[in-house]
Design a protein that fits this description.
This protein is mainly α and about 475 residues long. The protein has a domain of about 200 residues. Helix 18 packs antiparallel against helix 20. The chain is globular. About 5% of the residues have low confidence.
């Protein structure tokens, strides 16, 4: 007997119930809805309020679709596909049903906000195409890179002009019969979508194992897992990571040579074990190496194609800012998870001479994590500020505005009450950040100068949250080992 649609489509949601507090979801979604309502009230016209509401809902539905596809691909296990009759067929049917429902809903919501600018068939086409593209991006990492890099190459490679002879007949056919063309496109998209699933053969087995390995490494990275470089990075990645490992070893040797039974010295040594692959030194060396190489590569690319970078940067401001935010603000969302994964080491660390105890240890651990995040936040804000001066887009600073209170709230949790991190719990702060930033970005884009008021409010809110959490840490159980009171 094959699995029902209900079990297939709701598997990702039910699996996430094993690790979350029952009240977290209502509170989380309540905060998002309240923020959405406040943003809507600040809009001067009903059309702008509708635009904000529809935009956030469409983004949320897209995130839901991505999470659903990730789980559906995991359910496409080669052994199950090969041995369970009808499993692959029901999996494909459930995927098509969810894709059609989400795409139609996204297109309708977008049409409500943009009915006077874009036709409904065009919006339905865009929604369905983005759903298929997101599915293939989850299926193969090369598709994700192509989808991310593709739009930024349209201008420098003059693709619009080169593809004009092919593009114009398609546009003419669309304008003449939009609904007929939409139906044909949906059929083609459906065939492309169901092809993401393997059929249980040897190629499927190999691809599934590779994908699961990448997902495992991603989840370990989100949680800051301690694993050997060879196990996590592979041959090429291991070679590239050797300089970082060597610098971290030299830093540890320096700390051991200067070891003193004082809190600063003890916590500096403990930080190497507590944060592992998320240690600030590894972040600094990795970014300090990757950014210059990336900049030189981009400069060489511009030199080869003979295009000034100004044209690219003006069309990729949001993507560049998002990349900076992901690289720079990640400590605010990943550091707490590392404490759970180093509990065995923590049982020995608390015995170090000079290690603070009780309330002092709670404050020392929180200070250690906040220092890492706030320095990264400050550098990222400066980079975003430089991008703002270059492009004049005030909404760029909304990334920093949204990240500060969320980072403070996430990093000042009592370590003793932590629970085992999972992909869902690790991604919740990131999802909250993106949803909040979507609202703030829209507000800053429509109202000039609002970003400075939002920045001031973010600072005040962060200070209030820090004062509240700092006092709560003084009454919480001792921080280490983490999770013993969770």
């Amino acid at each position: 007997m094959t699995t029902s649609f209900n079990q297939i489509l709701l598997a990702f949601w039910r699996q996430s119930d094993t690790d979350t507090n029952r009240w977290f979801r209502p509170v989380f979604y309540g905060v998002v809805l309240i923020g959405l309502a406040v943003a809507g009230l600040l809009m001067p016209t009903a059309q702008l309020r509708l635009l904000i509401a529809c935009t956030v809902t469409v983004i949320a539905l897209f995130g839901l679709w991505v999470m659903l596809v990730v789980n559906l691909l995991e359910q496409n296990h080669p052994t199950t596909t090969r041995l369970v009759p009808g499993h692959l067929r029901r999996l494909r049917q459930a995927t098509l049903a969810a894709w059609l429902l989400i795409s139609v809903t996204q297109g309708a919501l977008a049409w409500l906000a943009l009915s006077d600018k874009v036709s409904l068939p065009t919006l339905l086409l865009a929604a369905s195409a983005s759903g298929v593209a997101a599915a293939w991006a989850q299926r193969h990492w090369m598709c994700a890179i192509a989808l991310y890099m593709g739009p930024s190459l349209v201008v420098p490679l003059h693709l619009k002009e080169r593809l004009a002879p092919l593009w114009q007949p398609l546009v003419s056919a669309w304008l003449a019969q939009p609904w007929t063309c939409l139906a044909l496109c949906v059929v083609a998209f459906a065939a492309l979508l169901v092809s993401i699933y393997g059929t249980g053969d040897n190629a499927h087995q190999k691809a599934y194992e590779q994908r699961q390995r990448r997902l495992t490494l991603l989840r370990r990275g989100l949680a800051g897992s301690h694993t050997t470089p060879a196990a996590t990075r592979g041959g090429l990645g291991n070679g590239l990571a050797r300089p970082v490992d060597a610098i971290a070893a030299r830093w540890l040797a320096r700390l051991l040579a200067q070891a003193r039974p004082q809190q600063a010295s003890v916590m500096a040594r403990a930080e190497l074990a507590l944060h592992g692959l998320q240690h600030w030194l590894r972040h600094a060396v990795g970014l300090g190496t990757a950014l210059p190489i990336t900049v030189l590569g981009i400069a060489l690319f511009f030199q080869l194609i003979g295009t000034a970078p100004d044209a690219i940067l003006q069309h990729s401001t949001a993507g560049t800012a998002l990349l900076l935010a992901v690289l720079g603000l990640s400590p605010g969302f990943t550091l707490p998870n590392t404490l759970w994964l180093t509990r065995r080491e923590q049982a020995l660390l608390v015995l170090l001479p000079g290690m603070p105890q009780g309330r002092q240890l709670n404050h020392a651990v929180a200070f250690m994590q906040l220092r890492h995040f706030l320095i990264a936040w400050g550098i990222t804000t400066l980079l975003l500020g430089g991008l703002l001066l270059y492009t004049g887009n005030m909404a760029l600073l909304s990334l920093s505005v949204a990240a500060l209170p969320l980072g403070v709230l996430n990093l000042t949790r009592a370590p003793a009450t932590l629970r085992a991190p999972t992909p869902w719990t690790s991604s919740r702060p990131v999802l909250g950040f993106f949803l909040l930033n979507a609202v703030l970005w829209g507000l800053c884009a429509w109202l000039d100068g609002l970003v400075w008021w939002l920045g001031a409010a973010s600072l005040v809110l962060s200070a209030a949250l820090l004062a509240w959490r700092w006092r709560a840490l003084g009454q919480a159980p001792s921080a280490l080992p983490a999770g013993r009171a969770g």
